[in-house]
């Protein structure tokens, strides 16, 4: 047996197992009046949401994550101090009414900087995740759906998995920061660079998961039915394949946000991220490390925000995974 | 099994060649100039000769093949000579760092022990913590221990090492003054005092890395134990009247360890990469710190060689994980 055949066989068996397990749960007799089963109309997403709500950790995490997003998005309209405004006379001030979270060594307001930093950090996380997931789903679906492209695309994925990612990211950022900053401005250039670098190095897991699921889907009857009425390949993928692999993609996307935020902060922490007047949480932490003995709160606050956001996103991902697994749902 | 190993080893060669080419071309495409720090008063023809001396005169493919030859032929020969006292590599040019003008591998050999003691030890500690936690969490699923364990591992997994490291430094290094916050690599262990100093300075970096690794591995261990605890053979073992201890620690544990061991093997090279940050936090001058200084100094041979070594480690440990899986689980047949 060749590798692909073996993989194919394994994937097929997994699907069969999954369908068989799901069938077992619904083996009970259908209700007498199937139209009003459960008393309300049920859709897949409503079921997912109901299951998600029963996961306490994920619900708490969702609330905290929404609060964090409100903090960074709406916060600057309420707390209107400019995060880059230098008030040298108020520098290094502690917690006070004028500056609830104190100021840094140049007298810039920490609360405003945390809000501005969070915007960038979360924006980087979301954008990098979107790039990684689109790339991963594209490669996963093509390699799962078109048999001829499977082997070369999977070889490429394995090659990418063998790359030492953090060193390469460091390298890419150092090498291309200057030219991109010149053409797009320092902030936008770094943003494009970091987002595309993270996106281009983190699509592999998603591609593998999606490919496995697509391989399993291809053996199902509805695909055969769609094929037999002459559905062209692009509509096959958009109408029949993609909606059915949406749940693993969504879980991978959620976890991808967490990885992207951590990677960006790590780059900033190594001094290879955004310029200092364009703060992110990682950059704020990095800037404060020099004075961590006198002003530990400046290190701890951005660090707490990073950890809290990542923790929330991971919990949401966990909850989503449980909610979307038809074997667990309804139990 | 043997044919599989040989086939995978052969397949690793083009993979590694491709990766080295990618890294090389990335460095080649970079606008950075290793002579960027040379004063402007140096005349252009002198600069040109300096360029020649650094080996930058020839086109990129010549330099790439030359580097490959140095990496795969000259360096092994040199170390062979070093061990057996032969003279095969006499007169051959080794890979030279732009920054220190000394052979790249000598510098790496100086740095490896620091990285290995801190990173290797922390991985060991992490595994030793993670396995029991994973086992107990799965066996007592939904108990308070499980809830706590899952929560703590989720936190350990989500807190970046640069944050935990800095917090530990603030608490134990600055406020309590228990441990030194900077890792002193010049310390030589000679007697009990220096041994104690070494232990004290290793506590914090090892804790940070161990916590992070333990968080990941315990999650895998728990999931794998849960998978196995529900299997039919467990019920059979209990029905035979085997003690609970034998059932869990012999039957279930052995089967659940199979995927976990491969995860541990797969995680090792990533630890070397991830240690870059921890080394930066605690100022350990290991491989990670070497890479960062080399990147900042445009030291192309050093960056190329180090990144490639990381790639070799990844390919090697992936192979080891696959082979281990085949050895440990007789149901897996690769041929």
UniProtKB/TrEMBL annotation, chain A:
Membrane-crossing residue ranges in chain numbering: 59-79, 120-146, 158-176, 188-210, 245-275, 295-317
Record's keyword annotation contains DNA damage: no
Main location: membrane
Assigned keywords, A-Z: Cell membrane, Membrane, Transmembrane, Transmembrane helix, Transport
Residues of the ABC transmembrane type-1 domain: 118-317
Superkingdom of the organism of origin: Bacteria
Membrane topology: Multi-pass membrane protein
InterPro entries: BP-dependent_transpt_permease (IPR050366), MetI-like (IPR000515), MetI-like_sf (IPR035906), OppC_N (IPR025966)
Pfam family, one: OppC_N
Matches recorded under CDD domains: TM_PBP2
Subcellular location: Cell membrane
Family designation: Belongs to the binding-protein-dependent transport system permease family.
Protein name per Swiss-Prot or TrEMBL: Peptide ABC transporter permease
Automatic annotation (TrEMBL), chain B:
Major subcellular site: membrane
Residue ranges constituting the ABC transmembrane type-1 domain according to the UniProt record: 112-321
Subcellular location: Cell membrane
Membrane topology of the entry: Multi-pass membrane protein
Protein origin, superkingdom: Bacteria
Key words of the record: Cell membrane, Membrane, Transmembrane, Transmembrane helix, Transport
SUPFAM superfamilies reported for this sequence: MetI-like
Parts of the chain that traverse the membrane: 121-139, 151-174, 194-215, 257-282, 302-328
Signal peptide: none
PANTHER family xref list: INNER MEMBRANE ABC TRANSPORTER, OPPB IN A BINDING PROTEIN-DEPENDENT TRANSPORT SYSTEM
Family: Belongs to the binding-protein-dependent transport system permease family.
Protein's name according to its UniProt entry: ABC transporter substrate-binding protein
Organism field: Paracoccus acridae
Organismal lineage: Bacteria, Pseudomonadati, Pseudomonadota, Alphaproteobacteria, Rhodobacterales
